[in-house]
Amino acid sequence: MLNKLRLLTPGPTPLPEEVRLALSRDMIHHRKKDFKKLMASLQEQLGDLFGTSGPVLPLSCSGTGAMTATVYSLFAPGEKVLVVEGGKFGERWRKIAESRGLTVVCLPVPFGRAVDPGRVAAIINEDSSIAGILVQSCETSTGILHPVDEIARRTKGRNALLIVDGVSAVGISPLPMDELGLDCLLTGSQKGLMLPPGLSLLALSPGAWKKAESIRPGCFYFNLPDERKKLESNQTLFTTPVNLIFGLKASMDLLLAESLQRIYTKQWALTMLARQGAKALGLELFAPENFAWGLTSIMLPEGVDGVKLLEIAETEYGVCMAGGQDDLKGRLVRLGHMGWVDWSDVLAGLYALKYALGKVGGYSASRDFMEAAMSAYNCALETGPGIVPSCSRMRS
Ligand SMILES: *Cc1c(COP(=O)(O)O)cnc(C)c1O
Is 11 touching ligand 1 by the criterion CB < 6 Å? Predict the structure, then answer.
């Protein structure tokens, strides 16, 4: 009761009031004219968000559903794909591909590092039978950005479709699909889009649509060519999660009223705030470069119980942050700053981190982290992230 709960996790994220109100509207029918009008008005906005002139399909599923729909619609059993595996979500691509009966060539990447695009290109050049490259833009489990722009440049014109999981990147860091030459871009509702979980969005390039049409879909529910046909009449194949579509309209209105460029700049500035703040606390950042714009991964000092620390941050300060997964469990704090989060939320997160750290026997520097963090934020807001969209290689 004393504290307001601040959800500073890399999804789900807090919801703006406009979105919450939109979600609470009474039901309308998903085959009638009001709904079709709403869907039609969303298509143009979603095209801007994805940077594509093609259709953007809503799917009723979490992000993993859209990943599954992609693999099952674009590749037939026995085909070969390259998976960039530098964390939990890369691993998820591999498991989905294996479940579809694909032959997986795995490119392992040390956790906390981005893939070297030269290595991806070398593998693709060597083996022309590879039909797809499965990669994340942001690998949320470690907090890095893979240079998908560079991968696109270096693998252009090859046989392999470039499939990008942008769940923790779309609406957070620039990823203009057509300009970069991505063959598939997908996202989920609960991250940069400031919505509850349960809705995914997906777009394909003309080449990827051609491939999808040449393949017998792997499952009944996810049939992307049929979904696209249905979308021409502003509907989805099955019952749409109508409230999430109301919410999506509200969130798109908010994002586009601000301009995406300014949203990206804000995300960049929040990243600078979090990184400088953590450094001023004397903590080490897990991703020294190629870092994500929607979360910051912070290493905990040796001997500190990270699970306990997160519990204290939540119960005593009302700040809910994420930890590391698998080998990184207890070793890492992932401070989320995507979606409906601003500077004061991130400062609250750093404050909770500093004092919770003290309570589990960790040390943090006494330097004024707030001043350091805020001056980094203000400076970043002013200067912006520099060259976009290729800003994934910037350092702080
Ligand atoms: C959150 C996330 C997903 C989707 O996870 P769901 O729980 O299925 O919504 C997929 N990829 C990345 C990179 C993510 O961050």
Answer: yes
